Amino acid sequence: MSDRPFSERLRYLQHVRSIQSPTIRKPIFLVMPFGRHKGKSIRDVPTPYILWLLQQEWMLTGNLHTALEHELRARYWDGTL
Questions:
Q1: Cα–Cα distance, 53 to 29 (Å, whole number)
Q2: Segment 35-60, tens digit of pLDDT
Q3: Residue 70, phi then psi, degrees to nearest 5
Q4: Cβ atoms of residues 54 and 10 within 8 Å
């Protein structure tokens, strides 16, 4: 997984939570294009895997990064995280 300590990953999650609260959960029809969860809807990807992906340097920008951050915010505000 990641060489980063759990406390650093937790701080990142808290940062994602603080970005903004979505007023409406917009549907994301994006599927994972690669990796362990290739072909799965973003909504079906486990939270730890999303957190790990967002911490990777090669994943800092782009539509997938945006979709993953949106999904984390939606899970938090829906109470599923």
A1: 18
A2: 899 999 998 999 999 999 989 888 77
A3: -60, -40
A4: no
